[in-house]
Amino acid sequence: MAADHCLESNEFAIKTMSDKPAYETFVLPTNSNVSDFGLTFYKDAPVFSSFRSDILMDEVEREINIQQTAHKSFLYNQKKNRLGFIKAMDGTINHIGPLSFSSNGISCAIIESKITDSYNFITSSKGAGLHIAMVNDQGEITSSKPFLYNEVGSSINAAHMAFDGTALYFSSNRKGGFGGYDIYVSYLNNGIWSLPVNLGNNVNTTGNEITPFLKGSSLYFASDYHIGLGGYDIVKSEVINGVWTTPINMGLGVNSINDDYFPAINSKGELFLTSNRLGGKGSNDIYKTMKLTPNEVATTDYTNIPKAVSLEDLTTQTQKHTGNPEMATAVSLKNADVKIVSEKQETMDNKVAFTLPEFDTKKVGSNANSEMALEGAHRIGLEEVIPTTEVFFIQLASVSETKPNFSRFKSLIRFGNVYKMNNNKSIKVRLGYYMDRKEAEAILTKVRANGFKDAFITFEVLNTAQMELILSSSDENNFTDEGNLNSKNPTEEMKSFKLGSKYKVRLASYEDPIWFDINKVKDLGRIEQWTKGGWTIFILAGYTNLEEAKKAAIQSINRGFKTAEVVIDNGGILERMKQN
Q1: Structural domain range at position 230
Q2: For 504, phi and psi rounded to 5 degrees?
């Protein structure tokens, strides 16, 4: 039997690997260089576990949670645009997660275990137990107690709270199963959880079945024994008349030759998973999958994602709580569609699952720092505020010259702006950016038709600290290009633009641009976004003379920007006005 099973698995793997993948897989830019795993949702707000240590704890949190390398769980707070810790009632942050919330957001299942960053379920989950918690309207845990059927000598390493909290599917290596870890179900009846029932030998095997997720009548889970490609594969079983069908492998794309587990589906029907496959950023990473049509061929290179755009490297420091800021690496999830990975950037309900530590506004996000030298600042946006979100770029070239010639890319500015991305020892030249993958693919076709045959699409989080706007259709340097002028009098339009590009108003400098309220000043001029180091500098432009700029500066001060001042844009270099 074992030989037959091995032969069948080999035949399946060979055939599947030779077929076109059924899914396209995105490694999420929100992953860190350590293990990120177990993505789930609290009313569509993403929740996940991670070994990342770049999100600082305050003094009290550090006293309670001494171990620095322990995994923690985080929830994205859309209102405050940052990650926050999920805490137990006693303030514990370490060793919590993964989690699963009921559909009504009233209760949740919490795994507590001392796993390691390598995160092997079999060797790292000894002693893992399940706790059931209640959550109030503000998302705070109001009560928590161990699951009635935790057992000494065995573990529960993953759990899914189904429906409105009345069913609990979990994987455990307790005695009486078919193999290592099996999947069980327990039901809540009159406030009491029923004796767990093994889902049977259609679902469970002599191997390991873990990380269940129920969607409707379909149970998604991972198995290292059911027919697959290698390691753990994600499979799906349907319940028909109370009987679970033989699981079907989700196929290439969802699965790889490495370990794939933690399937999770959001309200839009998008499938996410955790995997330690090649091409990720850490030991384990969170991926999004997209089902492909039979004739669709992926043109996106998702393996060539620059290291610079990972969350731990971002310099818009939205997570510096009250610790020593020099010990933290910058992170930001601002405007990340809150579902982390939606291409169309649809807005979710403004739900906050857990109360998070407040910002120390003296350290994070203020319109202070008026004495910061402007030397070295570079422009990143015209007439827009660049969001820190996931987007698509078209990479045009990768060059090693210190001062490359960008003029050859001028013909492409009708398709978007051209940016320079500083990435280690090379410079990436990219066109964009695009919120929608289909739009990016359509533009890519046009770009290749214009002679840039090697162009390809990248998917990443915008990192304003490492990008510089080089060419734009609204930039004075491009007014000599035919077709870029909008008026019937191009000479006057060019003259007006050039005059208006000299005197500008520096409004404020921020560590986190979330604190900038564009509505206060958008009627006073054209908004420009510049950056220097970890600071974002907002500029007003479009004034034909010094007096207009001075007037706008006074109006800006009256509207709350107390440090507003007139500056000079000297060919892309910001300079302060000389004081008489």
Answers
A1: 2-22+36-272
A2: -135, 170
